[in-house]
Amino acid sequence: MKHLELDLGARSYPIFIAPGILGDGALWLKYIRGQQVCIVSNDTIAPLYLASLKQQLADKSVCEVILPDGESHKTLAVLENIFDTLLQANHNRSTTLIALGGGVVGDMCGFAAACYQRGVQFIQIPTTLLAMVDSSVGGKTGVNHPLGKNMIGAFHQPNCVLADLNLLNTLPDREFSAGMAEVIKYGLICDADFFVWLEQNMSALMGRDTELLSEAVYRCCVNKANVVADDEREGGRRAILNLGHTFGHAIETAEGYGNWLHGEAVAAGTALALALSVKMGWLPPEVEKRGLALLVQADLPIAPPPNMNVDQFLQLMGRDKKVLDGQLRLILLTGLGEAVVSSEASVEIISQVLLAAGVGA
Amino acid sequence: MKHLELDLGARSYPIFIAPGILGDGALWLKYIRGQQVCIVSNDTIAPLYLASLKQQLADKSVCEVILPDGESHKTLAVLENIFDTLLQANHNRSTTLIALGGGVVGDMCGFAAACYQRGVQFIQIPTTLLAMVDSSVGGKTGVNHPLGKNMIGAFHQPNCVLADLNLLNTLPDREFSAGMAEVIKYGLICDADFFVWLEQNMSALMGRDTELLSEAVYRCCVNKANVVADDEREGGRRAILNLGHTFGHAIETAEGYGNWLHGEAVAAGTALALALSVKMGWLPPEVEKRGLALLVQADLPIAPPPNMNVDQFLQLMGRDKKVLDGQLRLILLTGLGEAVVSSEASVEIISQVLLAAGVGA
To answer: Which residues form the 3-dehydroquinate synthase C-terminal domain (chains A, B) (predicted)?
Structure first.
């Protein structure tokens, strides 16, 4: 079993990575401090794993909330279901919520935990590759707004994260690829050695070799934990984790939440960020080529949707959380494994890159 | 002008108390760090004070959200209006929200600030006595749920609190009295000298003597600031600020939000807490009498609504945030100015006190 600690002082917590740990209650039951537990899952995952999770919780008083699956349901209105269930079951401040699902379930469950009675504890059990390597770690929680992704939320850290690699066995290929976009991200922004390792192992990873996947999830979590420990509330460096995300959020919002998976939009956004980094003269073109090749090998899109136009992109990007006092801040690369947060790219140069990528004028 | 500081380390902030400070931008504009400002108010207060507030903000980029007035609108659904406006106006993470209103506006604006883009800054400009002495100070924010009051929220501290006593000139008598319930609370729970001062000055206070009101607001804020500085997130002692509130929340929820004002429900709840404290043998009956006399002098109810019954009370109280692992914890008095958090009162003894107060069997 692999194990690491996210170091945030009093809010520190462990991340456990191994096949089968969902069934190993002895390992993680101690992170549930009260008697009440509320499992939040969705209608795809619950039929697969809810029963075995509940088996481990036989000694607790358990209620459950099964949300509709998909990014389009990540809204304040759907969030209310969690509060309804918690109150109907008389759950108090000592309750623990458990997120059993992908990024959407984790973000919503975490946000509900942040807000219920002004904050209760929660545990992340990610069931997708994307959630294991990215969204379940670091305490970002929230819901979407029709005008922008993740616009309503909180920083709220879990008690622990359990990445059970066996849960990936039921993950559809498209979702698996989407998770790989975030895996590749870590190589690009802060871990050149890992990027090289990914180039060497991508075909085995796409074949879902458990040993290699375990290593990949661990490396991603170590990288994320380091960045988050330095800058929990994204005052500065944590923003590099958003490589491709400002472009990507614009795609998700424009195309309708869930039509492009988050990881797919991040992949296309990463391709744009690579192109922009080259256009700025900051990144050697061959690093861009290697990045694109790895995304393609992971069956990910590297071009934005052709039905979008430049103005739409710029308007949606202008609403992103990385905007500060009118300045659009983007994550760009200055080398393999080296990212910067920059507002130096002008609207003109961003437009040129979008046009070159096939976006309408 | 009176001025105190709530000491919370990096989250410390000043509270300014004086007639006319709303017009003294030189004093408080420095607490707005960015260019964007969003004023949140309601349809009663906005016609009275929005224009003069905006005059002070002439150099800022200002948008506004006018909510419907009243506790019944303190919901997640109404909260969405704030997010809609912020996103439509492209407000980013450096925006500052300003709550211009009573407790409902302050709680909702503060919660919106806690959640918008995972947290932006905000300022409290309370316009009711209750908000000046209690809800605007200490960072509790949130909305109600049909099944329980303030069940969804966050701890989020403002940048500063501006208590402009001139704003009380337009406050209806019933709301003024409601605020006095929280004023009396501070005397009962932690400041016997202040309680005696209130006994001596209540009739002049009810006549809205500005000098005396200023002193009362200051004393309340000093007491609240001390309690909150010791226990920001209510792990322990902060709970004493909820004297009468567990009973009171049950009344508010049962009667429909807004039919009993929060302060009225707290007054009736305080009367029940006093009676229970006496029944436990912890409080001399003459302190109960002095407490009731002061509530009556402030034109406040001291009996619960007769249409409620004991079971309804107990069920609603069982859902309160002060419940921990099934134990109902109540704030009781052991003397004038001395409160404890206790789960020693049995359901039987609470029922007896409710029945004696006229609640149905």
So the answer is: 179-323
